[in-house]
Amino acid sequence: MAKNSPNGEIQSSNLPNFLLSVRLKYVKLGYHYLISNAIYLLTVPILVAVGLHLSTLTLEDLVQNLAMLKSYSTLVVFLGTIYFMSRPKNVYLVDFSCYKPNERYMMSKERLLEKLTDIFDESSLNFQKKILYNSGLSDKTYVPVDKWIPSNFSLSSNQHQAKLVIIGAIDDLLAKTGVKIREIGFIIVNSSMFNPTPSLSAMVVNHYKLGVNVITYNLGGMGCSAGLISVDLANRLLQGQANSYALIVSTEIVSSAFYTGNDKSKLIPNMIFRMGASAVLLSNRFSDRWRSKYQLMHVVRTHKGADDRAFSCVFQDEEEDGKKGMSLSKDLMAVAGEALKTNITTLGPLVLPMSEQLLFFASLIMRNVFKRKIKPYIPDFKMAFEHFCIHAGGRAVLDELQKNLDLSEALMEPSRMTLYRFGNTSSSSVWYNLAYSEAKGRIKKGDRAWQIGFGSGFKCNSAVWRALRTVNPGKEKNAWTDEIDDFPAQVSRSC
Fold first, then answer.
1. Known catalytic residue at 387
2. Does the first or last residue of the chain, that is N or C, have fewer Cβ atoms within 10 Å of its Cβ?
3. pLDDT at 22 over 60
């Protein structure tokens, strides 16, 4: 029996409405499950068939084929030995620390703007005020208060700040892990804007009076993604030297990058960069696996520097009056989007389930071979990761990545709260993100975390970690611990 619907269409009263009775998301989940487990579905019948065949053989048959079995066994052992010897060494993240400055460095938006009144003209001051109140930063971020006037932006004051945050982060890390700093074979320090002589890595060696055999690296001018570049460098170093530790320190000395002119393209960094640092301990010792938090799975680096537009979209230069500043071009978001697209094109096949890769490939064929006008299929990275640690470069950056990757507010929470509470701490921000998830008790054994960083040049870098154990926030302490119950906080536009 049929009846008319309110809009004039005829529906059958005997058949259910398919779209209402079947939740298509379960169809998609079933498809993903089928494709992702195809190897097992194909292998099990083969193993069963082999088992049934062997069960029909008599003892005499087995004795007759003993020589062949020995040959096969020898071949398997030989190939297995070659495989295990040629495999890359596993690299473990033993623990990490995020520096939390003393409360005397905490500065509200209003107080910061008061300090800038005598430095900038009214137009520049109003522009910075607008940026600051729409930045997504709270009134509890940190700046070097005592030095936050141009007359004190000296080399010695910058060195003092660097030592404060770097040694503070390292000391906290050493206390967490119990590792003696003399056991560490590699030390990598990255700071984009501030690179004195002797280097910051040499400062670490001098402070701890390390031995002559320690190998140090100092990365400069590589922007906010230098922390993940350091992870890649440490991984490569650990592949070549067994039973070693690598220490990575990521920071930015904000006063060294403070701009005092009136070019609006250079004023934005003044309002979003803040004090911060992270220290990360990596190990390739098998014995450290049982106490480490994470295992490094992949690092993917993308460099768009060959493109002039990408190369110059974040650029430091000097004006005629000698004032230095870092310009952010109007092409920045477009360049960042292109860099991200290139990066995830490489990362996708490494982390996405086969089902997502097939859907993406099918979309590509339909669009480019059959010329069908369909939207390109955007892979669902939520099927590959439980945690997203996106560099807290600014509100607009986070908004754009959330839209492009189709991420929920819950998945964006660590990045938005890092920006809100600590500001843009440059290359260390991805570690504040991960620390937030730990403090919330969200890291479970087997979880996968994706760290994404952007930097001048222009670069987009990714690191993928797998949790080796569940992180119990009751037994851990990090930069968020004392106030984690206050988050997530409501972030609103004030101006």
1. yes
2. N
3. no
